[in-house]
Amino acid sequence: MLKVLDTAVPVACWSCSIGHNDSTLFCPHCSKIQPPPGGDYFSVFALKPHLQLDLPALEHEFHRLSRKLHPDRFARALDNEKQWSLADTALLNDAYRTLKNPLSRTEYLLKLVGSEFDSSHEGKEEKAARTPGDLLEEVFDLNMQLEEMRQARRTGEEDAALQASLSDAKDKFTALLEAVDRDLLSEWKVWDEGDETARNASQKQLVALLDRRRYLSNLVRDVTETLGAK
Amino acid sequence: MADLNSTGRVVGIDLGTTNSLVAYMQGDAPVVIPGVDGSNLVPSVVALDPPAPGGGRPTVTVGNSARKSLIENPERVIYSVKRLMGRGLEEIQSELKMFPFRLADDVEAGEVPRIQLGELKFTPPEISAYVLRQLKRNAERFFGAPVTQAVITVPAYFNDAQRQATKDAGRMAGLEVLRLVNEPTAAALAYGLDRAKAGTIAVYDFGGGTFDISILKLRDGIFEVQSTNGDTHLGGDDIDNLLLTIALDEIHAEHGVDLRGHPGAVQALRKAAIEAKIALSSEQAAHFDIELPNGDRYQREIPRGVFELFIEPILERTAGPCKRALADAGLTPEQIDEVVLVGGSTRIPAVRQLVDDLFHLAARGKKPHTELNPDEVVALGAAVQADILAGASKSTEEMLLLDVTPLSLGIEALGGTVARIIQRNSTIPASATEHFTTGVDGQTNVAIHVVQGERELAADCRSLARFDLKGIPPMSAGLPRIEVKFLIDADGILKVTAREQRSGQAAKIEVKPTYGLTDEQVESMILDSFDHAEEDFAKRLLIEARNEAETILAAVERAPQSPAWQMLTADERAAIKSAGDQLTTIKQTDDAPAIRAATLALDQATRRFAELMMEAAVSTAIRGKTMSTAGDDLGDAVTAPHAMAPAEFK
Questions:
Q1: Which residues of chain A have a CB within 8 Å of the CB of B487?
Q2: CA torsion sign, A41 to A45 to A50 to A51?
């Protein structure tokens, strides 16, 4: 299922005219900055598309590339170099932002290998998405309590029992969230190290885990907000 | 001789609500450039002199001299214009209630508001341009050379329109704005310069009219902003206005005099309020003692405790942004290693107490940083960033600022909801690509409404611009695939490009900024276009010619130290010396064209020398270079000559 990611095609450097492959930020011959290369976010950091990443190394590489690419380094360069510095740095920043966060990294890789799921545009509505079957009952209870709590807040009442019960629910769902995170970690390993069959299975697992995680994290956020509101 | 203009000095400018400053990098330390009066601060006040007797355009004054007119001629003075930058007509109504300015009568909805100043009308960027031009002139006087490039600071929480308005003001003042830098980040740069440390710092910037909080991670010279938050309409002005309102109400109640109809008296009272506020930072009480028009005296003592009660709601408004910034950075107060205080309002003890509480400082045995003058630190940081951009200095070559966009960028979707495409606190430059299609067969236009803000509905966010994608090849509905790339540049300003992917056609984009001036409008407002007197022009020409001459003479003076010098023939050396002597003599005269001719002659005489030097420097011979372009290789960076700065007058 994994698409061939090596889409590098030889192109010529705008400055020295020597051909190079398209995945480079700087011309290997004359070192001049090049237009944004094709390829995915992983290739910006010369990484294989893997889910387990060495984050300190990623940050180090981000800083190293920033020093070379950032528009501040091209304030007095030629106009085209300025343009490419801007575009390359935007690509670098987009790539770093996506890869450093474990969830966006997982979503990104899943999309890269062709998984379709709804991850775009963060908004409140997405909570309405499917409730995981094993949680239906608890979520129903929780929503009732949340509504009660908001109602109480509006009328200025303090219901200690309700508060305690919501606190417990928060702990419980937070624990579930942590469990999902552990599952994700082990699934990363499966994906990274597995063959194609293992990956296909893992991919479905990962999509399901991400959906569950998004659902739980919205829930925990709502409880925290309701508890914290004054 | 490609881009010789680009090697002049780059200055750093803090265009403040109350005061503005210009600074530059002197060696490895930033310093503020004083004005003619010796003062580092130029009050951001612009006044129109009384109408000229001949009926000509009245003179505009800026700074301390303009401030003097505040009480005598309040209707010809404007201050705190930063609060109006990049804002729409309906947005500034409440703002204007606090100030004595009047909108021009003929401003229409959708236009950039114009303020009536005496018999003339100005947009906020034009007013700011006058302040910027004053700073530019101060710097030019100081260097004895033209200054055409600058870094200007803006509040971190400024939106796209406010940033664009600031850039427009720079252009009107004859400055190429190389970068807009966020004020708190600039302050961090100024503090970070002499301490190569790693850690997480919070910059609490409470100025005259704006409040910002930024959280940065420092490592190996990289200043990486983690999150930023703020309020672009919260500052010392609000405290002044609160004290003023209290005083006006008390005077009305106790003495039966309503001063609100007397702009001069209001300004006198405002001045007293500001003085009381300042005094209360060091004294336990301040006194009002004002003579009223009816001969009564308004006398009032304000103990510090009462003052602190008054201003508590204002100060409390800074707490929310601080908490949100911490949450967005995923940090607790204990994880903040250092707090830096910026802006005049941080001199207020109650503000320091609030900061201490927010970041648990005293409890951890820490104190906020106040070593650098809070009025100057932003300008100093701007000078550091200017030096980074100029790229010629050892002291800043390891430094790099990675800033973020303060507000999420979104597109209005069906039903008026917002589809967020770039999240707030994303490192800039940042980009997002979206695809659009048509809803009707044969449709050739698609409209996109871009908004900035965190709310769920487009109507609650700030409208940024409406893009009209035109020239889409007529196809069945849903078939065209228009790829639109949104890119927030390093100044925090949005750029958009679009392409129809099926036909490969670049779609034409027509941008209607919701707030802001068009390019043509900015062009017509360039200050020099109407008041650059002929005499002024000649003076500048002379300054520039002398500057060029000195640059090349300095380079020639150092030439014998170069190995390339030994490769010249005796005749060639004599020719250089003779041309140099001639230029040294002519430079003393006021004849700009003659100085230029002599400079050119010297440049020609050194052509072979420059070539030899270039050959020595790089193995490939670069033809056609002359002394001026080879100049950068002549000496060490700090004293290296500037290449010729040709005057570009149209």
A1: 86-87, 90
A2: negative
Q: Check if B205 is active-site.
A: yes
* H-helix segments, A101-195: 102-112, 136-154, 160-193
* Secondary structure of B577-628 as H, E, C letters: HHHHHHHHHHCCCCCHHHHHHHHHHHHHHCHHHHHHHHHHHCCCCCCCCCHH
Nearest to B399 by CA among B388, B390, B414: B388
Of the candidate CATH numbers 1.10.3730.10, 1.20.1270.10, 3.90.78.10, 3.40.50.150, the domain formed by B533-639 belongs to: 1.20.1270.10
Contacts of A96 in chain B (CB under 8 A): 427
Q: Check A76 against B429: CB less than 8 A apart.
A: no
B615 vs A76, more confident: A76
Q: What is the pLDDT of residues A31-55, one digit of tens each?
A: 888 888 878 999 999 898 889 999 9
Average pLDDT over residues B11-35: 93
Q: Residue B508: pLDDT band by 50, 70, 90 thresholds?
A: low
Q: Is B411 helix (H, G, I), strand (E, B) or coil?
A: strand
A124 touches chain B (CB under 8 A): yes
For chain A, helix (H) and strand (E) counts, in that order, are: 7, 2
Do the chains contact at A72 and B7, CB–CB below 8 Å? no
Amino acid making up residue B159: N
Rounded to an integer, what is the distance from CA B11 to the centroid of its chain?
11
Nearest to A124 among B426, B456, B489 (CB): B456
Contact B487 A75 (CB under 8 A): no
pLDDT in tens, A119-150: 444 444 444 456 777 777 788 888 888 888 88
Cα–Cα distance for residue pair B134/B596, rounded to 1 Å: 27
Q: B648 versus B97: which is more confidently predicted? A: B97
Q: Which CATH class is domain B236-314?
A: alpha beta
Taking the C-alpha atoms of residue B128 and residue B616, their distance in angstroms, rounded to an integer, is 48
Residue B457, beta-bridge partner list:
B417
Q: How far apart are CA B323 and CA B213, in angstroms?
A: 10
Chain centroid to Cα B93, Å, comes to 24
8 Å CB contact between B383 and B399: no
N- to C-terminal Cα separation, chain A: 51
CB-CB neighbors (< 8 A) of A41 in chain B: none
Quick one: tokens of B218?
Answer: 């420092």
The complex scores an ipTM of 0.82
What is the C-alpha separation between B4 and B1, in angstroms, rounded?
Answer: 6
What pLDDT digit, counting tens, does each position of B485-504 carry?
899 999 999 988 877 777 77
What CATH code is assigned to B409-522? 2.60.34.10
pLDDT-derived band of residue A117, with 50, 70 and 90 as boundaries? low
Dig out the tokens for B136 from the structure.
Answer: 């530019």
Domain layout of chain B by residue ranges: 4-216+375-402, 236-314, 409-522, 533-639
Burial class (CB in 10 A: 0-12, 13-18, 19+), B290: middle
Q: What is the DSSP letter of A164?
A: H
Give the residue among B400, B326, B14 at the shortest CA–CA distance from B182: B14
Contact at CB, B400 and A94, closer than 8 angstroms = no
Is residue B212 annotated as a catalytic residue, yes or no? no
Cβ-nearest to A93 among B3, B219, B427: B427
Domains B4-216+375-402 and B533-639 fall in the same CATH topology: no
Q: Identify whether the C-beta of residue B628 lies closer than 8 Å to the C-beta of residue B554.
A: no
CATH topology of domain B4-216+375-402: Nucleotidyltransferase; domain 5 (3.30.420)
For chain B, state the CA radius of gyration: 28
